[in-house]
């Protein structure tokens, strides 16, 4: 299992040099088996490990950083193991923590399936026409499909993968029930369910530009930029951002496909903006190089949108599932095979 990146230096400052073996609410001689772990503790550990810090875990769980820290201290005390190695400047998950991470993921997934059964009050018989862009299809769409099927087994799922502009046209025409797209579409008829934001970065192959790790934003215009166009909401958002910073791209290649953009970039044909977490394995292997710009690319918010006038309780239920399931950090392992 790939070691999650730890970004939060606060982890390294936790007072774990000598953890107490008991907690104030337990007798000093209480046997270890009598001290129960909780789902909240596992949840805090899971998201701190997955997202790389206390603060993003607290934001994900809608709580405070101190609450996450307390739950992790309790979990380590009950288990009697260190979940993070704090000998470095940035804490890293330990081998014991890595094993617990897999178990915690399974337990939390089981919890979600149980909760979904409780939410499914009626055996809904219908077809859900769900539109997503490539990024969602390549990350957390399988998890969302699994949860919908677990709670409503009689629902027929009809997903459609397309560009965000085309998907929204189909929502307007009533050809799709909902769409998960970059949050670039603001119309009063749409209910907008915020999901998460994605960290994009400028990337290129070392064959195109080697030895450069930072460029002022305006200097990027001197290179070939591979952009998302052709009915891409993301491309429109990045294009407006570049215009705001008075950057005009003179030489470009374009596609509406994330897969095509990645292929063009790996081929050494230019610099593109790609979701960083999805391509971390290729960055680590040296096949892609990240170029920091000043200013940096903004995070891109994503949302689920549906027509208010036609939505029912089931569509709103799917929206709640999407909020809980959304995870753009976990790419499908077969997306880009190593060279």
From TrEMBL:
Family: Belongs to the LysR transcriptional regulatory family.
Gene3D superfamilies (alphabetical): Periplasmic binding protein-like II (3.40.190.10), Winged helix-like DNA-binding domain superfamily/Winged helix DNA-binding domain (1.10.10.10)
Source species, domain of life: Bacteria
InterPro entries, A to Z: LysR_HTH_N (IPR000847), LysR_subst-bd (IPR005119), WH-like_DNA-bd_sf (IPR036388), WH_DNA-bd_sf (IPR036390)
Domain HTH lysR-type: 37-94
Pfam families: HTH_1, LysR_substrate
Alphabetical UniProt keywords: DNA-binding, Transcription, Transcription regulation
PANTHER family, A to Z: HTH-TYPE TRANSCRIPTIONAL REGULATOR (PTHR30126), TRANSCRIPTIONAL REGULATORY PROTEIN (PTHR30126:SF77)
GO terms for MF: DNA-binding transcription factor activity; transcription cis-regulatory region binding
The protein's name in its UniProt record: HTH lysR-type domain-containing protein
């Amino acid at each position: 299992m790939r070691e999650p990146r730890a970004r939060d230096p606060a982890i390294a400052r936790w007072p774990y040099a000598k953890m107490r073996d008991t907690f104030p609410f337990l007798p000093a001689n209480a046997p270890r088996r009598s001290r129960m772990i909780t789902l909240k503790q596992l949840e805090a550990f899971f998201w701190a490990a997955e997202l790389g810090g206390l603060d993003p875990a607290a934001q994900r769980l809608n709580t405070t950083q101190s609450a996450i820290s307390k739950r992790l201290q309790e979990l380590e005390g009950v288990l009697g193991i260190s979940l993070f190695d704090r000998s470095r400047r940035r804490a890293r998950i330990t081998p014991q923590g890595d094993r617990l991470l897999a178990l915690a993921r399974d337990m939390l997934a089981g919890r979600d399936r149980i909760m979904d059964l409780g939410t499914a009050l009626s055996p809904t018989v219908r077809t859900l026409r769900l539109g997503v862009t490539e990024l969602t299809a390549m990350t957390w769409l399988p998890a969302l499909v699994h949860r919908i099927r677990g709670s409503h087994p009689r629902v027929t799922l009809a997903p459609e993968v397309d560009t965000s502009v085309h998907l929204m046209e189909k929502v307007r025409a009533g050809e799709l029930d909902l769409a998960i797209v970059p949050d670039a579409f603001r119309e009063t008829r749409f209910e907008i369910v915020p999901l998460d934001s994605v960290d994009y970065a400028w990337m290129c192959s070392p064959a195109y530009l080697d030895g450069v790790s930072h460029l002022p934003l305006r200097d990027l215009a001197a290179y070939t930029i591979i952009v998302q166009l052709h009915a891409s909401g993301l491309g429109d958002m990045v294009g407006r951002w570049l215009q705001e910073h008075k950057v005009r791209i003179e030489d470009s290649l374009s596609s509406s496909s994330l897969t095509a953009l990645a292929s063009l970039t790996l081929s050494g044909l230019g610099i593109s903006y790609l979701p960083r977490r999805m391509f971390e394995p290729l960055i680590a292997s040296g096949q892609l190089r990240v170029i920091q710009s000043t200013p940096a690319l903004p995070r891109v918010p994503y949302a689920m949108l549906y027509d208010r006038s036609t939505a029912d309780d089931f569509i709103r239920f799917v929206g709640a599932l999407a909020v809980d399931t959304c995870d753009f950090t976990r790419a499908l392992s077969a997306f880009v095979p190593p060279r």
